[in-house]
Design brief:
Helix content: under 10%
Number of helices: 1
Largest sheet: 26 strands, antiparallel, barrel
Structural class: mainly beta
Shape: globular
Mean pLDDT: 89
């Protein structure tokens, strides 16, 4: 049957209908009541209200600014300006009443030019309130009170402790500009500045005694990117320049020794923090349609990173005499090169093939193997100098795969991924890995889809050699996991079932098995499995419901040697995590009331056990179980008072309990040779309630 004839008849009927009604209809009076695009003029919405927070909350509200609030202001909104000539301006503000606020603004003309501005603040609380005897927390010099008693037991006067709030506040500024230079041509310029201030946890030691310090954070990172791009139907290309500059105003920390000095003069220590550095990179990318069903694409980039901050002294102990440093600064220099070429083709109906090859190089040109005086924890000077390696790595990656649609219901895909890495100054210089994978997708019957994924990978490493420039020699039987032979098998499956038009069920399962048994010492095996179910149910146009559950299990085994010989102990780590939840969305009272609720239950556990392999030896008791429990509930209700005004109430409840032997009960002086920070684990029970009025115009 000729399909063109019915179309011609329908078109003719449409023309006649339009002609007959043209005199009666006035298009200038037509209105679009549900157009997805804003109309010309000013529009937007403003939300304002108040909120309350109750309960103890060390660690709650990380990144949200609610961790130290009893009450807060809800304030935010969006303003939009449009014109018929394509000019547009937008301003969006979020959480202005909290120190996790954000403002985004943009102005421009569609298809011509644009300017953007972004301002954001993000608080990050690392841990609950701690305690320390050090004075000057937040600065680069940490001292002790006059007459401070040297720590030797848990008997530490409470009067000597100061509160510590470990955390970092980040302020971010984004600027951007785009310009369409002509048909197919576009340019862009972006700038980002991140400023981080606060304190971070840092470990320091004097041989057999250790201290946890609240080290300062006073850093900034500036990034700039300029790009030009061209795009047509058959050709796409771009050229870009990227620069990143990191500055640390607190480049070192000096602390007083809170313990009795082991050797004379060991009363102060100094440690370098992150050094200033820069990175510059030029990159280009492009794509070309060789034929209607064949495309060639690629990208290349070259970069250089530098770091030349001055070194701190080898020791502050005047009684230790060291040789002069071989250089005043690192004079660090690393060159990078990355390139990739990919070919995509469709040689036959239903068959698609892809091939790509990539090369990546990190050439470390920092002066290497210089002789540096080695001071062992401010206790003595080693007679053997330390020599610094300059690690470099080169890798080549090859990918070949095909996707073949056998029938309308069955699709097969398979491929090969190969990678070779060459490293310098490591015990094994070369690793090669080959991965073969297969995927199958099928519609078993109407409404039921099944997918299966299988993969096998083998990695081989070059023979291990002795590393002579490091500190203490390594056991020749030890194999680092990323430099050892490994066999990996993975499997995954998923079933999607559409039960009618309103109910969807998905079940998924994934597992992996890593085998390192060719390593006499080190990681021996790692295994894991995860699975879950997801249900989405549309009960009616007014009510939608979802339920999900997920479980994940993992374990790792390793062997070690205390006697610097063959394996004489083994360790096992078991991890598990479960999460389940449900949510509902409901519209009532003819659309005037919208309700939404979510509940989530999460559990995780970790257990470590170490046993001796020397018989007869009874099995050692495992370390205490570490666990984390979190339950949360959220409820939102919005009452539509009018077409422009609505009232929204939000309630959130969260309960978290952490049991971790590495945290629990470890006060500053609990361990005789450790000055801890006495941090509290993130255990809390919190209620958050807010009410806000929203006005749309």
């Amino acid at each position: 049957m000729n399909a063109i004839l019915p179309l011609k008849i329908l078109a003719a009927c449409g023309v006649l209908s339009a002609a007959a009604s043209a005199a009666a209809a006035d298009p200038s009076q037509w209105k679009c009541e549900s157009c997805p695009y804003p109309k010309a003029g000013l529009s937007g919405e403003v939300e304002a209200g108040v909120g309350l927070v109750t309960g103890e909350r060390p660690g709650y509200g990380d990144y949200t600014g609610l961790n130290d609030k009893k009450s807060f202001v809800v304030l935010g909104g969006t303003l939009r300006q449009r014109s018929d000539e394509g000019y547009a301006a937008d301003v969006t503000a979020t959480n202005l009443g909290l120190n996790a606020r954000r403002i985004d603004a943009a102005v421009g003309q569609q298809g011509r030019w644009g300017l953007s501005l972004g301002l954001a603040e993000t608080p990050h609380r690392i841990a609950g309130a701690g305690r320390t005897p050090f004075i000057g927390v937040g600065g680069s010099v940490l001292t002790l009170p006059a007459g401070y008693p040297a720590v030797s037991s848990s008997a530490m006067p409470a009067s000597t402790l100061n509160s510590v709030d470990l955390g970092v506040d980040r302020k971010r500024t984004d600027l951007g500009a785009t310009f369409q230079a002509g048909p197919g041509w576009s340019t862009s310029l972006k700038f980002r500045r991140d400023v981080r201030e606060g304190t971070q946890r840092l470990g320091a030691s004097f041989y057999s005694t250790s201290s946890l310090l609240a080290a300062p954070v006073d850093q900034s990172t500036d990034q700039i990117e300029a790009a030009v791009a061209y795009a047509s139907r058959t050709v796409q290309a771009s050229l870009a320049y990227h620069a990143s500059t990191f500055r640390n105003n607190a480049d070192s920390v000096t602390w007083a020794n809170p313990f009795q000095p082991v050797v004379a003069g060991s009363t102060r220590g100094q440690m370098a923090l992150a050094p200033d550095n820069e990175f510059h990179q030029v990159s280009a990318s492009g794509g070309f349609e060789l034929a209607p069903k064949m495309r060639l694409s690629g990208d290349v980039s070259v970069g250089r990173g530098t770091q030349d901050s001055a070194f701190v002294a080898a020791t502050l102990n005047p009684s230790l005499v060291t040789a002069a440093l071989p250089a005043a600064a690192l004079n660090g220099k690393v060159d990078t090169f990355d390139a990739r070429v990919a070919l995509t083709a469709q040689p036959a109906a239903g068959l698609r093939v892809n091939a790509s090859v990539a090369r990546s190089e990190r050439d470390n040109r920092t002066p290497a193997l210089l002789a540096w005086p080695a001071v062992a924890a401010d206790l003595f000077v080693s007679p053997t100098a330390r020599r610094n390696p300059a690690y470099s790595v080169k890798s080549t990656r090859l990918k070949l795969n095909a996707d073949w649609r056998l029938t309308k219901a069955v699709t097969l895909a398979g491929g090969y991924d190969g990678e070779e890495r060459i490293r310098s100054y490591l015990a094994a210089t070369t690793t090669s890995e080959d991965t073969f994978w297969l995927k199958a997708r099928a519609t078993v019957f109407d409404g039921v889809g099944l997918s299966l994924r299988l993969a096998h990978a083998d990695r081989t490493a070059s023979p291990y050699g002795a590393v002579t420039y490091g500190p203490a020699p390594q056991n020749p039987l030890l194999r680092l996991p990323f430099l050892s032979n490994r066999s990996r098998n993975t499997v995954g499956a998923r079933v999607d079932w559409a039960i009618g038009e309103n109910l969807n069920v998905a079940v998924h399962f994934d597992a992996f098995d890593d085998d390192y048994t060719q390593s006499a010492l080190g990681l021996q095996a790692a295994r894991g499995a995860s699975g879950g179910v997801e249900v989405g149910w549309t009960l009616s146009e007014q009510t939608q419901l979802y339920v999900f559950a997920h479980d994940e299990q993992g374990r790792a085994f390793q062997r070690g040697s205390e006697a610097f010989a063959g394996a004489d102990w083994q360790g096992r780590i078991l991890d598990s995590a479960q999460v389940a939840g449900a949510g509902v969305r409901h519209v009532a009272l003819g659309g005037k009331l919208e309700l939404a609720g979510d509940v989530v239950f999460a559990r995780s556990r970790e257990q470590t056990q170490v046993n001796s392999l020397q018989l007869p030896t009874p099995a050692a008791a495992p370390f205490p179980m570490a666990s984390n429990m979190r339950d949360s509930f959220k409820l939102t209700a919005t009452w539509k008072m009018s077409e422009t005004m609505s009232l929204t109430g939000r309630y959130a409840y969260e309960d978290q309990h952490v049991a971790d032997w590495r945290w629990d009960g470890i006060n500053p002086g609990t361990v005789g040779n450790l000055l801890a920070l006495g941090e509290t684990p993130p255990t809390y029970r919190v209620n958050v309630l807010s009410v806000a009025l929203r006005y749309r115009f």
